[in-house]
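#data-curation
PF: Archiving a pair of folding outputs for the training set. Convention for this channel: one message per protein, sequence first, structure tokens after, nothing in between. First:
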Amino acid sequence: MSDSITDLDAHALSAAIQAREVSCVDVMRAYLARIHRLNPKLNAIVNLAGDDALLAQARERDDELARGASRGFLHGIPQAIKDAANAAGFPTTQGSALMKDPVARADGLMTQRMKAAGCIVIGKTNMPEFGLGSHTYNSLFGVTANAWDPAVSAGGSSGGAAVCLAQRLLPLADGSDFMGSLRNPAGWNHVFGFRPSQGRVPKWPTADVWIDQLGTEGPMARSVRDLAALLSIQAGYDPRVPLSIAEGPHDFVPNEPPSLRGTRIAWLGDLGGHLALEPGIAAVCEQALQRMADAGAVVEPLSSLGVDLDRVWQAWLSWRRVLVAPRIAAALALPGATREQIKPEALWEHDQAQTLTATEFMRASEMRTRFHARMLGHLQRFDALALPVAQAWPFAIEQPWPRQIAGRTMDTYHRWMETTLYATFAGLPAISVPAGFDAAGRLPMGLQLIGRPHGDAALLRLAAGYEALIGELLARRPPEP
């Protein structure tokens, strides 16, 4: 009974709960049993609440259903919130020992919306310190193991969330994405991860609502349908976040999987040699694109974005430093905090920002504007732009980040994730879909599809059309650790 419950996707689980075929208590017991069995080896969930308290909440959800009241799609479904977002009663550590004690008094907006739809928050999912670097490890909780091979990285920063999905510790997961943090771990754990359009899922509370738009919260799931259902709950205008999207669909769940016939997709590959890619990655992504082409999509190579990508990278670095530095400065200002308690990559971002002038930042913003216009030009010709979701296969878990890729030295701790910045910098929606596995059939890789501005629903329909072609690939499950 326990594994049969945790094997259900979110739609099937929600339907079974609403029909009272399974109780919320049964569901909670099944997930807690699996978490207690597997999480000690995976380290994907942190600050897990006590069983008794969670079962009491599940009983309350059952009592509500007995009275004919349902809170919505997530009624009675266990949810662990990424440790970057507030959930009342839990610390928001951001993977830092400096913030391990204070407990959130109120839910963040995303958590609030998911709770309103009925979820029960059971704990938090692990992430890198301050969310920096696409490898989920920190000195507070330790490292999260990849769902497919515990010897390699789970990706990040939503690594704990992706592993929970792949190993059936959660039916759905939330996360956030700055430089691929929903996309990279999804690709490396063989699930779907979606970075919504800038403003689609507003973040609150936040210190700044005008400039800090590179990071966004969003959904992760084992199917496009589940992914879209969670986005429908997370998305929506909030007046406290003035740049949030006020118009558009409220339900992002595609109807029947659409035909891909006539869909135009540009394959960017390694962008004419600009991106260093480990062997086999391009081939796996091209196999995924070939499946779409066989179904009627038109896939064309596009080896250049028509803009100086080195200048885009430098502009990106300026924006990233401006947005990361205040968070690190706030941590350094905590009582008793020292630089030795913060990882070198975070200090590097903070220190580099200290000499950045307003003029330099405005030039970076102007470069971002030109880049955005160029991306819009390509998306007038194509329905989506395709890239690998990562430039390296999952690497050894002891390694902080890849120093070299295909013989090319990485000059920063995040250069190996450059492929993910293009959607972020242009504020465009992007999804990571499972593409396949390495030559040994052991390590997963994702294909990244970038859509038009505010085109979240169209991009999800495209992904659903692809999903319908890969049933055998999606049926693969990771071994239990």
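PF: Second:
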Amino acid sequence: MNNQSERSERYYNLYKENIKRIAENSSPYINSFREEAIEKFGQLGIPTRENETYRYTNLDTFFNHEFKSYFMPVASDFARAEEFRCDVTDLDAHGIVLLNGFYPTITDKLRQLPGGIWIGSLNEASKKFGEKIEKHYAKYAGSDSDGLVHLNTAMASDGVFIYVPEGVVLKKPVQVINLVQSEEDIFNQHRSLIVVEKNAEITLIICDHTLSPTKFLTNAVTEVYVGENSHFDIIRVQNEHNNAGKITHTFIHQERNSNASSNNITLHGGLVRNSTHHFLGGEGAESYSYGLYLADKFQHVDNYVNVEHAYPNCTSNQLFKGVLDDMATGAFNGRIYVHKDAQGTMAYQKNNNILLTDDAKMDTKPQLEIYADDVKCSHGATVGQLDDDALFYLQSRGINKREARLMLMFGFAHEVIQNIKVEALRERMDNLVMQRLRGELSRCASCMVKCG
């Protein structure tokens, strides 16, 4: 048996050891996908560099590790998670806390917000909203080449469910705080489903934090349905330590004249791999994909973006920027696919990177695959260092070299941050990015639980 087979077998065994406990907390419908999914995972395995979408990312550091257990919470875990508070004090949001993939609130695991919006535990929702779950669950997340998506379908324990009825506009964002905490090394997975009916609007903020120094591996899948004429924004802020591996898969399905944006901001993490899929499934749909990643030491950040134009007169825009220091590595793999009937498509893609040392490395691969003839599409990528002329100009105005470098890097990064529509979060991200560039940002700078 080769290393790849041994590695896949390890997670197959983890499934067999834990599926009974996982399944007893889920609905029969969600459980009905598990056996087929684990078989697909068995066929595909853990992605290697031979997989084109993982070409620049080596998962061995985390997936070859022997995780002793698959986390299942007890009451004391719930109590500890509920003590957490986010320090973005001006962020007026409806809050949800996940602990190692579980919705830990002992009571009110599903609660109703103004306008008939429901938020809470996916497990709980699967029992109370069977019709919605059956219409949307596992309908958008799929892959012919990524076994990790199927591993999540097989083993996902809990996650977040959000339902926004037709015509409802939620003015305050929903904030999901993902906490990872354990006394031992753990592997966990969570699955989220967001359903935004026609003519509705919602903003979702996801904050990833680690609260203890052990080794963690997270494999998360989020499915989003955006109905006709609806608006949906998702902002993910990742600030975890160097022993944390975070793999996210976000699938956004859009209907006619919908508008959706995704923004992945990676401040810290040992291995981060964000995979975002926008499917423009109706005429006039618009999608916007943003990303900012700051890495140093031996950190690695990989962003994969796939935008599929399936209908005419749709628009998409991708903007990803990175600053890499020390021995850090990064990857951007962006794909725009235009179907033959998707006439009138406008699609743009840009990836810009700054390397602060000779040892930092960035791989970038923008792609266009176009089968329609009436389109406007462009892509571009740059990898370089700070502009010497701009640096000289600032120094000539009396600004010391260090501050001049920081100003240039901050201006470079702010082009992504300015697309955050929630003002309090945008201001907080500006502050955190400047701290990160100054080298002042600890692994959990925005967490009130200081774990050293």
